[in-house]
Amino acid sequence: MEKAIELAQLLLQGNQDAAWHLIDEERVSGSDSLHIYENILTKAMTHIGYLWETNKITVADEHLATSTCDFLLAQYFWHKKREDRTSNHNRKAMFLCVEDEQHYLGIKMASQLFAEHGWQTRFHGPNLPLDYAKKAANEWKPEVICLSFSILYHAEHLSPYIKELEELPFRPQIIIGGRLVTRYEFRRYGSDRTVFFRSLNEVNDWLEHQPNGVRSNVGT
Ligand code: B12
């Protein structure tokens, strides 16, 4: 937790260099993506949420922290891609937040985990209305579509998104995640085929049990 609090301070200063240095030290000392995403970046952002809730920081500070965190994710992924020798395959996954949902850092982490496992990914970021999601999915035909939401009243979007995306002719697998999935039961919004993941650990387990999910760290 100490690292997460230290990182939160750097994110709030918008100090990209020092924040990257902290993450890179973790990376170089052998921490894996799950640890960096769950225990450092997510915990730092949760702490920022606490500071915001208790009026210790402003919305401007929160936005600066978010954009700095986004930078770290991109920078981390760039390094990861250079060092990992996971063989890529042709399985495709697309990632999006339901309509009006702005919190996208978590699903960006999920998309990076898929990519680390060799998947082709398309990350559509926040707030993607269903019609556009369907159109994009129909054109690209991903085998998996991951959705994220963080605000309780956005759960009302789940049923139409899940139903209409699952009904697409190529029958994609729909995966749902987000901070509330750990706290409440949302299965009633889905079908027998819908998968709800409570953490990136669960995503990782699922990825490792996929036919192409085996990591091959052959070569340098
Ligand atoms: C940064 C932030 C913002 C930023 C978002 C920026 C961005 N581009 O993402 C901004 C400033 C825009 C924002 C706005 C708002 N926010 Co806000 N925000 C946060 C904050 C501080 C951090 C969120 C975050 O990035 N966390 C880090 C990520 C990595 O965590 P995560 O999303 O949970 O993801 C993890 C898992 O859930 C999982 N995951 C996530 N998605 C998926 C998807 C799949 C498929 C899988 C497998 C896994 C997965 O992976 C991650 C790692 O485990 C949280 C505080 C908190 N406790 O989370 C509040 C928080 C979520 N926000 C909150 C609120 C209230 C709002 C606003 C309504 C405020 C307002 N009045 O305007 C708006 C709503 C905007 C909207 N329409 O969506 C509340 C929600 C409370 C509630 N009861 O629902 C929180 C909890 C703050 C609080 N303590 O009150 N917010």
UniProtKB/TrEMBL annotation:
Record SUPFAM superfamilies: Cobalamin (vitamin B12)-binding domain, Methionine synthase domain
Family matches, as Pfam families: B12-binding, B12-binding_2
Organism placement in taxonomy: Bacteria, Bacillati, Bacillota, Bacilli, Bacillales
Annotated ranges, domain B12-binding: 90-217
InterPro entries documented for this protein: Cbl-bd_cap, Cobalamin-bd, Cobalamin-bd_sf, Meth_synthase_dom
GO MF terms held by the record: cobalamin binding; metal ion binding
Protein name from the UniProt record: Cobalamin-binding protein
